[in-house]
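U., I forgot to send this yesterday:
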Amino acid sequence: MTAIPDWMFRHTATVKPLVGEGAYGPVYGQPEEHPCLADDKRQLVRDATGLEVVSDTTLYFKPGVVCPPGSQVTVNGRTTTAITSLVRDGGGLPTPDHVEVALK
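Result:
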């Protein structure tokens, strides 16, 4: 597996993964801190329902980080919600494997 080099993970994100819905709204798991690369760029992405949503930040994590759509994410002092979470795995090819998360 080829991964993004560790020296590129210059930021830290706290992820509270969405684990379900309760009587009072979303239910989150325990917060976990992960090194990441935060890229502040505005782009259109599709959410889990297929709607186009504007994302202001994209985070790049090491492979294995769990951050499903709807999770709470705090990075650079800002708490927001994950829109999409994509596992980028080259299946053994020499690609930079990582997890890519688009944030509101």
